[in-house]
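User: I'm preparing a small set of examples for a lab meeting where we compare how different chains pack in three dimensions. I only have the primary sequence for this one, and I'd like the structure in token form so I can line it up with the others. Please keep the answer compact; I'll paste it straight into my notes.
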Amino acid sequence: MANAVVTPERPRLARWRWTITAAFGLGGISISTWGPRLPAIKADLGIGTATIGLLLAGVTVGAILGLLASTPVLHWLGSRRAVTGALLLIAAAMTVMGLALILGWVPLLAAAFVVVGLGIGTLDVLINVEGSAVEQAAGRTLMPMMHAAWSIGVAVGSGIGAACAALGISPAEQMIAEAILVAAAAVAMAAGIPGGSRAQAGEPAQDRVAKVRQWLRGWLDLRLLLIGVVMLGVELGEGSAGNWLTLAVRNGHGQAAAVAALFATAFAASEAITRIFGGPLVDRLGRVRTIRVTTALGVVGMVLFILAGNVWIVLIGVLLWAVGVSMGFPLGMSAAAESGPDPAARVSVVASIGYFANLAGPPVIGVLAASAGLLNSFWLIVALFVAAFAAAGSFRPRSAAPEPAATPATADAPRPKA
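Assistant: Understood. Below is the structure token output for the 418-residue chain.
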């Protein structure tokens, strides 16, 4: 079948792997372009915090549209052109953002925020489908490392923004320069992505209406929804850390603002390190046991963070909290892509749940905190970590029997070659 993924020889497989890893990194850099520059953007345009909030909401709207658009885009363009096109769309939107800042035109900036969100949401699904195909071809777990590249990209993007602010480089100049670099990297990397749309061998051709129906049926697929339960728990935990961790350390545990910032840095480092070194652990234990171990550690970490009075125990809680959220999203994407026909549609379903949890969860924590206190509101994360632990069996490969005693040879059962 023309679109089926054929296992490439080793050099091509290595190039494919590192190309997609680089695409993850570019996604992380792109999504952190404007965050460090929001104070300057607000001052330059003379707008209020509410307007900034509406601009950022545009990114969310665009990302959701991107999740919905990713499947038809993949089938229409194929993997190579779809990934490259998504990166070029992001670069174009960043260029328009820079021009809007130069012109001082807020409506144009708002439209550019929606479009950049569209590109990032589309890219997110596409590179996760590609990442799953790469690790199937390689026969080992690679998605956590790829997601670590996204985390590293976020850190690099934030560092670029901070450096530009310190050097007096305007947000517009920064965005246009980064757009040029993203576009150049996208074109340079394109040849490293094999053609096709990652359809599974033997999968019958479908018209567009049938593909839409298949995507809608994914929302009634019990296994996908159970994968979504895991995504819900870990992504709400990650989103809440990003929004509430420093405030909880500052006000809930009485630490200085600088200490709270260091705790947030420790969380990010712990999550990235777990992802970097998590692949071999997954290959040894299997996805199911890995999720159960990490979410159980997440529960321990959250309990320590909520109840502990000693600052060092609180720090241990932060590190374990990060371990708890680290593996659910990358392994969930792999599990969804392998769970049935049309990987892009299935990844889109669970990614939508993950995005919802990451974006909608923190406001829920805020509402609970208003009545119960911020630290007590984190018991919701504990409950969802427990739910993720219980739903971890959904991560078992579709063709695998229940996992036997874990050994390097048997963990998660042999995966079919893509």
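A couple of notes for your slides: The chain has 16 helices and no strands. Residues 1-6, 200-205, 400-418 have pLDDT under 50 and may be disordered.

User: Perfect, thanks.
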